[in-house]
Write a structure and sequence with these properties.
The structure is a single chain. The chain is of the alpha/beta class. Strands 16, 17, 18, 19, 20, 21, 22, 23 and 38 form a nine-stranded mixed sheet that branches. Strands 3-29-28-32-33-34-35 form a seven-stranded mixed sheet, sandwiched between helices. The protein has a seven-stranded mixed sheet with strand order 11-10-9-8-4-5-27, sandwiched between helices. Helices cover 31% and strands 32% of the residues. Helix 1 packs across helix 3 and helix 19 crosses helix 20. The chain folds into four domains: 189 residues, Rossmann fold, CATH 3.40.50; 198 residues, Rossmann fold; 205 residues, Rossmann fold (3-Layer(aba) Sandwich); 210 residues, Rossmann fold (3-Layer(aba) Sandwich). The relative contact order is 0.09. Helix 22 links the parallel strand 43 and strand 44. Keywords: Purine salvage, Transferase. It comes from Effrenium voratum. One of its GO terms (molecular function) is transferase activity. This is Phosphoribosyltransferase domain-containing protein.
């Protein structure tokens, strides 16, 4: 078990100590974070630990019981083992018809499994949330015996030893006992100390392979980190740091221009929190010092002193902030960023760096000035020493990095066509991949598609009903990093102990199955300010979805959308929902639509939701948020935006990623994305490049020491500076997409095009988030440059923008771009 994964044990024991309760008869209540309003990130960490403990025996299937408690950790473990999950039912579903089954009953609870789901060749592990008497494990073990399968063992998150415990031979992460009605936890909760280095496998390999040592202790990694950025590598590092800092309650990520922005964006995207980018200015800038949070710093590669600053609106008192940067060398940037948070009366929970040069004692400087950061500083590639002969790295603790899913839009449709079977009475048998035997990879891919569709909805909670809807709901909640609320179809012992006054219930209309006739949640788990995404596996007659909506109505929560894997169009569930909830007309999404079914098979609508509808939704939401936050700079006839995408300092990585997806979809065959420093275009270019799956190059205003001796391509970008790019990043087969946040005068875009012309590479086009249709005044006045004039300056090239902004007096009209309005 690696130290990174053991962080989940710390979070688990901490949550048990702070939130678990002892109920009569030795019942342990963990419903508030583990199995009712569940923390999907915590569950995923626990699933990884169980997979580590039980995966050595080479299982082929994971088996779970007939309630949501055990299903959630089993899904997490199956995901990390990359194995199918089979979950039992408390009654035989009608969709199974007369197909043969296995069953077992212990203490009056029946478990039913299709015979085809478990075979004699299978090697099975059983996963549960809490084990005490072991009755569920015994029932599932009995089913394995009936199938002739090999039972390898069982695992649970918690071994409940309150009172008499009869569970044997079950691997658990935590044991809970009682002394004087107080919980005793083993392993005991302790103060969390992060490892100094979590060596990201892909990053350390890349540093060893492509890193070069230059005179003056300079490390040249600019071909994949800080001049040309490998966005796939950066995303994987961001996901790893997100896992390391899970449980710290991070509310914002803070970095400094320019090199820190790509890794910080990747971390903020993984954590789904706002990203703040501190700008730099010269040390004598009195205006900045007087009006901003500011702190002195020093650039090792630029060999100059500077001041880092953020607006006072971007950091708030009491916020928990994670500092992220590309390099830890002298430590001055980390200290300066910490000072900014201190001035805002926030709390720095940790610091994370891609590459640490240990021999420059940056960590020591930070700890001497900020001793409370001990055990809170992590790097992913720590260089102990380096010379022209080689690089020595600290790799005692290795963190594994996995690439992000990039699913095909038709992945669910294709699986339905291949595997779903028609049943009687309008029922569909999807037991082999969806709602009995679950494919965790398919659930992850489906979750990515749903997350992309609801990127503009600011989801705060995922709500689903046991059992089959929980697989995709858990994957989606983990991806969105929001709580997962599981509505029960039968009241659990914990609910019965709490009494009727503690729960909300809604009837599933038309249900003929008593065990599925009611959905129940704890009142305290659904809150008035929750923005809820309802998720289920199949939309049939709409009864389950409407019952979940009624629970939200009763709590005063707002449903922002409904997502389904399959929709049986012929049962008219969508119409029934809209008849009662017309506000959801644009908020019901199904990844697959089954138009009709008969004895010969299913008629499946093979086209996913038209991409243009997604593009238009993103542009409309972007327009709405920009219009709500725009500020007019009247003297310059310019526009500023406070936090929407925060083009100048504060960014919403989720909305920004949605914009990048739309822009990338308009350009095929791109091999590189090029943008200008320092901040504005860099964030947009990063997300466009990651969706194009190509490197991102950002032009420098200066020439860093690591670029000395290279052939430099230059172009005048503004009266204040010149863009510089190393010629080695362009090849004869490249097609370059130029990206920026705003196009106003068009001067920046033309300068970047000039660099491409110098490199003799074609420009595939220009992509911008917004078009400023009002001419600027002052140094960037388009009228003083006859060859320039906003979008017109780029005439003859393919130019794509998402929104258009026009100043009318002190008001700004923001609306989707003309090409998107035509799609509507």
């Amino acid at each position: 078990m690696s130290e990174v994964q053991s962080l989940a044990i710390h979070e688990l024991t901490k949550r048990i100590r702070e939130e678990a309760k002892i109920l009569p008869n030795g019942i342990l209540r963990v419903a508030d974070f583990l199995n009712s309003r569940a923390d999907p990130v915590l569950l995923d960490g626990c699933g990884a630990l169980l997979a580590n403990k039980l995966g050595t025996q080479k299982p082929t299937k994971v088996l779970a019981g007939c309630s949501c408690q055990g299903l959630l950790p089993a899904l997490a473990a199956a995901r990390h083992l990359q194995l199918p999950l089979v979950f039992a039912y408390a009654a035989v579903p009608k969709a199974w018809g007369s197909r043969p089954t296995y069953s077992a009953s212990i203490q009056g609870r029946e478990h039913w499994v299709l015979r085809e789901a478990i075979t004699a060749e299978d090697r099975v592990i059983v996963i549960d949330d809490i084990v005490r008497t072991g009755s569920t494990v015994e029932a599932l073990k009995s089913i394995c015996k009936q199938a002739g399968a090999t039972f390898l063992g069982a695992g649970a998150i918690i071994h409940n030893q309150l009172g008499e415990s009869r569970a044997e031979n079950c691997t658990s992460l935590v044991q809970v006992t009682s002394a004087d009605q107080k919980l005793s936890i083993c392993p005991a909760p302790k103060e969390l100390q992060l490892p100094e280095v979590v060596a990201a496998d892909v990053l350390t390999q890349r540093v060893q392979k492509d890193g070069q040592v230059l005179p003056g202790n300079l490390l040249k990694v600019y071909s994949f980190i800080n001049h040309q950025v490998d966005t796939g590598l950066m995303d994987m590092c961001g996901q790893l740091l997100g896992r390391v800092f899970t449980g710290f309650g991070i509310q914002k990520v803070l970095t400094a221009q320019t090199g820190g922005l790509p890794p910080a964006h990747a971390v903020a995207s993984a954590l789904r929190v706002p990203l703040i980018c501190a700008r730099e200015t010269h040390e004598n800038d009195e205006a900045v010092v007087a009006s901003m949070y500011s702190a002195p710093s020093e650039s090792f590669t630029k060999k100059k002193k500077l001041v880092l600053y953020v607006t006072k609106e971007s950091l708030s008192p009491g916020e928990t902030v994670l500092i992220v940067d590309d390099f830890l060398a002298t430590g001055t940037t980390g200290v300066a960023l910490h000072r900014l948070v201190e001035q805002a009366q926030g709390q720095v929970c940790g610091m994370a760096f891609l590459v640490e040069k240990r021999f420059q004692d940056g960590r020591g400087k930070i700890l001497r000035e900020l001793p409370h950061m001990a055990g809170r500083i992590v790097s992913l590639a720590c260089i102990e020493s380096m010379s022209e002969q080689g690089i020595n790295l600290d790799c005692k603790v290795v963190g594994d990095c996995q690439p992000l899913y990039s699913p095909d839009e038709k992945v669910m449709i294709d699986r339905v066509v291949q595997c779903a079977q028609p049943g009687t009475g309008g029922l569909i048998n999807a037991a082999t991949f969806l709602n009995h035997v679950v494919d965790p990879k398919l659930m992850d891919e489906a979750a990515v598609l749903l997350a992309r569709r609801f990127a503009d909805c600011e989801v705060g909670l995922v709500l689903s009903a046991e059992m089959s809807g929980l697989a995709v709901a858990q994957a989606l909640a983990r991806l969105l990093r929001v709580p997962l609320l599981c509505a029960r179809r039968a009241r659990s012992p914990v609910m019965l102990a709490a009494g009727d006054s503690a729960v909300l219930a809604a009837k599933v209309e038309g249900s003929t199955d008593e065990s599925r006739g009611e959905l129940v949640i704890f009142k305290e788990h659904l809150r008035k300010d929750d923005s809820v995404l309802v998720v289920d596996d199949i939309l049939g007659n709409g009864a389950t979805a409407l019952a979940l909506q009624e629970l939200c109505d009763a709590a005063g929560a707002r449903v922002v959308g409904m997502g389904f894997l399959l929709e049986k169009v012929f049962q008219h569930g969508r119409g029934k929902i809209l008849a009662k909830r017309p506000h959801l007309s644009d908020g019901i999404v199904a990844l697959t639509k089954i138009l009709s079914m008969d004895d010969t098979g299913l008629k499946v609508f093979r086209c996913p939701e038209p991409a243009r509808e997604t593009w238009l939704r993103v542009a409309r939401e972007l327009s709405r948020r920009m219009a709500a936050e725009v500020e007019v700079d009247a003297p310059r006839n310019a526009m500023k935006f406070r936090s929407v995408l925060g083009f100048h300092m504060s960014m919403d990585p989720v909305m920004l990623d949605a914009c990048g997806h739309v822009l990338a979809a308009q350009f095929a065959g791109v091999t590189k994305v090029l943008t200008g420093a320092p901040v504005q275009g860099l964030a947009v270019a990063y997300v466009v490049a990651r969706h194009c799956e190509v490197p991102m190059i950002f032009a420098r205003h200066g020439v860093p020491l690591t670029m000395k001796g290279q052939r430099i391509l230059s172009a005048q970008s503004a009266p204040s500076g010149t863009f510089n790019v190393s010629a080695e990043f362009f090849g004869p087969s490249d097609r370059v997409l130029i990206v920026d946040d705003f196009v106003a005068s068009g001067r920046t875009a033309l300068a970047l095009k000039q660099i491409c012309d110098s490199a003799n590479v074609p420009v595939a086009g220009f992509a911008f988030v917004a078009l400023n249709q009002t001419r600027l005044v002052g140094p960037r006045d388009a009228a003083s440059h006859p060859a320039e004039g906003g979008k017109e300056a780029l005439a003859g090239s393919k130019v794509v923008t998402l929104v258009e902004c026009t100043r009318k007096g002190n008001q700004v009209d923001v609306q989707p771009a003309e090409w998107l309005r035509r799609l509507a």
